[in-house]
Amino acid sequence: KMYDEDIKSAREQAGTAALSRFAALSNDDNCTAAAAWSLVTPEESDQDELRDCIMEGLESVEGGSRLGSDCAAMSSDNCMDGRTAIADRWVDEMISRGSVRNWRELANADSSILHSVLSRDTKLDAEHKNTPKTFMKANNIIHRDHDLSLVPSIESIDTWIEAAQTRSIEEIMLDILGGNEDLFILLRDEGPRAGTPKDLCLWSSIPSMLFEEVQTALKKRNGEGIDTEMQIVEEMDVLRWCKR
């Protein structure tokens, strides 16, 4: 019990000291830059980013979808070509009608709204068809509204959004860390296990401890002879990450 109280006291003292350092650094140029830093969602259209998220989603659900059963009767190359063509169509519709231009925007998207946008595309095509057909699998992963168009279900779109969120978290972390990918890998996979903005937020009350964890991970790398081009990490850097 006494040991637990000592740990709690040490953490409280570390947190108080860290907050004092934050105040002391408030007039520092680096801290001013951190305060001025803000997260910006890119507005550029990137079809490759959107296609990557859709293809990952298709791989996770295609076994129970019409698209998956169609692929079962094709060669692997033809199956891939078919998935890519369908994904490209969905990408075009998301960009032109859904205002979703890249995976950062897809990560913030509403699956029901995207489903409505992609269904509207199908309905417009169906107006030019005399004999539209309807097909839906029991698990409602993907359904075919007519011969040439596939409409993803909300559940399927959710997988795209999840893929986009995973990629966006990595991108945001790299932004917070000034583009240092090696440092991101260290934070995510080694010592601190702080690979997301939420993780950094949890460390924000005790940044000095996060700094110690980073230093320990760096020493372990050096001890194992791992070649790294990572620049020296100072406590001020850790404070900046947490503040961002």
Question: What's the SSE blueprint?
Answer:
Blueprint: H1 2-24, H2 29-36, H3 47-61, H4 66-72, H5 76-97, H6 103-107, H7 111-126, E1 135-136, E2 142-146, E3 149-152, H8 154-176, H9 181-189, H10 197-203, H11 207-223, H12 235-243
**Number of helices, counting only DSSP H or I runs of 4 residues or more:** 12
Taking pLDDT < 50 over at least 5 consecutive residues as the criterion, the unreliable ranges are: 68-75, 126-148
Oligomer classification: single chain
Span between termini = 36 Å
Structural class: mainly alpha
Structure description:
Helices cover about 65% and strands about 5% of the residues. With about 240 residues, the chain is mostly helical. The protein has a three-stranded antiparallel beta sheet. Strand 1 and strand 2 form a beta hairpin. Helix 3 packs across helix 5 and helix 11 crosses helix 12. It is elongated, with a radius of gyration of 24 Å. About 15% of the residues have low confidence.
List keywords for this structure.
mainly alpha, 244 residues, three-stranded antiparallel beta sheet, 66% helix, 3 strands
What's a quick, concise take on this entry?
The protein has 244 residues and is mainly α.
